[in-house]
Amino acid sequence: MLYDAIMIMKVKKIPACIIEEIEHDEIAFTLIRKNVKNINLRITHNGAVRISAPYKTDINIIYDFVSRKKQWILLNSNKIRAEKGFFMYLGKELPKDILKGENIERFYKQKAQKILNQRYNKMCEALSVFPKPALNIKPMKGKYGYYTKTENTVYLNSRLILVPVECIDYVIIHELMHTMYFNHGKEFHKALKAAVPKEKEFRNILAKYVLW
Question: How are the residues of the chain apportioned to helix, strand and coil, as percentages rounded to the nearest 5?
């Protein structure tokens, strides 16, 4: 009881808020503990994530909140950065000024066709995949890519042009592995891990981007 009383006294003496910089589930955010009743989420004018919570909220409850809101956070923070004159290209945030008035979607489409084809050819060569399956690049919902055995075609999400090159290569290798392994069984994962030792790292990086 004495310990509890001391703790209560300390709480009363803390400043108006306690601020922590935290990263969870690939989301970097500022946690502000203060005198509020609920957990609140805000995206600032520059795309930064701010979460306020009552002083005593368990950190795991906050982590769960962030994970549930992850896609919304990524989508809206990216929108705000875009409105401020920036766009994502190969994992880098670049000023729109370098486009010199060119339409951003046309830029993405042209670059996706060029670069994804280049990376695809390079990965086919690296894995000795010959003859190469056909390649189809298009916008997709809910997929980075997929392979169809009946068509012998690899499909890649054109929005991969937003992510770092090593992540593009990972997605391509993943789909090329399906030319030999037609499911996600043990042999598939063993071969993928041998080809891409950092696959988990690349999956985590991919999760930071909103591609659909």
Answer: 45, 25, 30
The answer to whether the beta carbons of residues 190 and 183 sit under 8 Å apart is no
70-83 and 59-68 helices cross at what angle (nearest 10)?
Answer: 60
As given in the structure block, the two tokens for residue 16 are 């108006």
Interval 133-171: pLDDT, tens: 999 999 998 899 999 999 999 999 999 999 999 999 999
